[in-house]
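Sample A.
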Amino acid sequence: MENENFDLDQKPAAANKDLWLFLIIIDIVCLCVFGFFLYKNLSARFFSPADGTLASLPAQEEQAAADDGKVLTLEEEVVSSVKEQEAPVNNPAKEPVEEEPVAVEKPAAAQTPEKAKKESVIVRPNPKSSKYRRVTFRYYGEGKKVSIVSGFTMAKPQALRKKKNYWETTLSIAPGRYRFLYIVDGVNTPDPYSPEEDGRSVVVVE
């Protein structure tokens, strides 16, 4: 009797173990199924947009390059149009303009005959001595005080006397070639009607 009771106690324990094992297997299967659906949803939410973004980057770069090419093309067209507009404006400025010569009348030419007529140096024979000549110097110009200086005056100023429209003095000079200057109000002035040499007037006494 005791053995039979012992067998009856062991049978319910074995049945409980099988039940628990079955429940564990069902839990594992449910967890696997739930995990599979959870992974699928997460991967669709987080990984698909990233792949799409990465795939769209080359397309965006190609679009940006195309836009840059369009901008460069527009800039080239603007520059070429500006050059075409400036070209006809600058070209006429480079063309030489012929100017007609303007005849200018020179009233000073009429003074040449008058200048030639004036005798500023007059040489005459000296009746008292054949070694010297009587030389008259005339200065045609304005001034309050006029004198002459040269080698024949021993480098000392010789005063001229005022006449109607000129200053005059007469000196006895030996024949030769001399250079002289007039001193008009303290200013050295060459004779405008005599030849010049080194800034001084020249007279030849024969």
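Sample B, a different protein:
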Amino acid sequence: MKMNAQLSASATAARAHQEMFAYWASLRRGASLPSRLDLHPSGIKRMLPTVSLIDVKRDPNGAGDGAIDYRLRLAGTGLYSVYGREITGRTLEDVYNTAAVEYWRRELDKVVTERRPGVGVHSLAWKGSPHMSILWLRLPLARNGKDVDMILGYDAVVGSQVGDQQSGIRAA
């Protein structure tokens, strides 16, 4: 029974990711990426609790080393239970341990440089919950349609809490 619940949860998460991707894709204008201004919360109302907006911060000094930093401009209320605190306004280093910062920097850098969505699974072992994972989706946004300056994120938490009979997907 537990395995069926987990498989069903993964299928539910995959459908939610498809729905978010379809919404993002509907905002594109040909080859141009959508911008933050194109987003309308009413279009993704059901998913808002685990939505995030991530600012892409390039080196303002133009040092040319290509360094990019990321700041969580917005983190849905459902993400509080994942991180155990408010993460809005924080950088990757403020939220994650070193290994997780490296993972997220690598994944977000790909979204920015390739100008394409990223999707994956990330274990919550870094926060002491190895039995739980985030199924994540990151979608590039660009004010000018080309240069990614923000990333739209959507997360689904899958797994079971230790000592808990519940398993499967839950609101983050």
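Observation for Sample B: Helices lie at 2-27, 80-83, 92-95, 98-114.
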